[in-house]
Amino acid sequence: MTQESGYFSEEKSAEVVIARNAACPSPRLAQVMEVITRKLHEAVKEIEPTEAEWMQALQFLTATGQICNDWRQEWILFSDVLGVSMLVDAINHRKPDGGSENTVLGPFHVANAPQMPMGANICLDGKGEDMVVSGSVRDTEGRPIAGVRMDVWQANDEGFYDVQQKGIQPDFNLRGVFITGSDGRYWFKAVKPKFYPIPDDGPVGKLLGALGRHPYRPAHLHFILQAEGFQTLTTHIFDPDCRYISSDAVFGVKESLLADFRKIEDPAQAEAMGFKSGWFWAVDYDFVLAH
Ligand code: BEZ
Ligand code: FE
After folding, report:
1. 181-208: per-residue pLDDT in tens?
2. Quick check: 150 and 179 in contact, CB under 8 A?
3. Are 129 and 10 within one domain?
4. 181 within some domain
5. Cα-atom radius of gyration of the chain, to the nearest Å?
């Protein structure tokens, strides 16, 4: 029997394993496994784990898989807190100059949110601080884009999405789909979002605790913008005054996604918007879609 690269040894460990995969019919899989094998063996050689430590790592990975179900995806959370979700996102969405930047989708998107007329209020339970969000959707030449499907969702002012509080919040609370007209403009009513923790009652939450990291995401609104002939934009806008703006648990914040949340203390304007409190938050944010 031939031994192309000899028997396994500490020195040649990666080389021997990579050679064993030489008959792989998929060049991409062969490349991926070669890189991962090389880097993983390098990491193990640098760390020199004890057997107990390696078992602890395997138990962490086991628990990460075991907590997953149809709605709980702990592997994605693990990728998120490692910054890998944002790295994959960055590699796959290198925008031409001027295009709005992507960020993570997150686990709380719901596919069939109701379509609403411009100006509708996505807050169905009347709880939270009133807010008006408006702006334009343009191409990189500055031309308004008509027919953009804008899917919006956000947490309430206690930091929970409707799907996390079934029976407490109405279904589809703080979600809506809006379609831009020929002016490319959009506007809708909502409530000021609040920071919230990513699901932290599982292995990833324990890992964050052990690392001395908090599990919070800064206050944000989610958007998916789709238009014929343009790249789909999956993004957020963030409240720059949120206490967690510089330490997002999943690294989703980009400077270009910081919006201006202005407090409008004008009872006449508030009344014209149908708000009873006499004041509201106003956020103007323009999106640019790339081809
Ligand atoms: C979110 O913003 O909904 C989210 C993103 C990543 C992990 C958890 C939540
Ligand atoms: Fe979110």
Report:
1. 999 999 999 999 999 999 999 999 999 9
2. yes
3. no
4. yes
5. 23
Which of 204, 222, 208, 230 lies closest to 259 in space, CA to CA? 222
pLDDT(283) > 50: yes
Two structure tokens written together for 38: 């090389």
Alpha-helix residue ranges (DSSP H) falling in 48-83:
51-66, 74-81
* Cβ–ligand 1 contact at 104 (below 6 Å): yes
Nearest atom of ligand 1 to the alpha carbon of 198: 8
Is 85 inside any structural domain?
no
Shared-domain flag, residues 32 and 111: no
Distance 213 CA to ligand 2 centre (A): 18
Residues 134 and 262 occupy one common structural domain: yes
Ligand 1 touching residue 106 (CB < 6 A) = yes
Same domain for 103 and 34, yes or no, is: no
Ligand 2 (ion): residues with CB under 5 Å are 106
From atom 3 of ligand 1, which residue's Cα is the shortest distance away?
106
Pocket test for ligand 1, best of 104, 152, 204, 224 (most atoms within 8 A of CB): 104
173, exposed or middle or buried, with CB in 10 Å at 0-12, 13-18, 19+? buried
User: pLDDT tens-digit profile of 207-234?
Assistant: 999 999 999 999 999 999 999 999 999 9
Q: Which CATH number characterizes residue 220's domain?
A: 2.60.130.10
Residue 259's alpha-carbon distances to 159, 222, 242, 247, in angstroms, are 19, 12, 11, 17
In terms of Cα–Cα distance, which of 6, 286, 274, 21 is closest to 131?
274
Residue 109 sits in the same domain as residue 166: yes
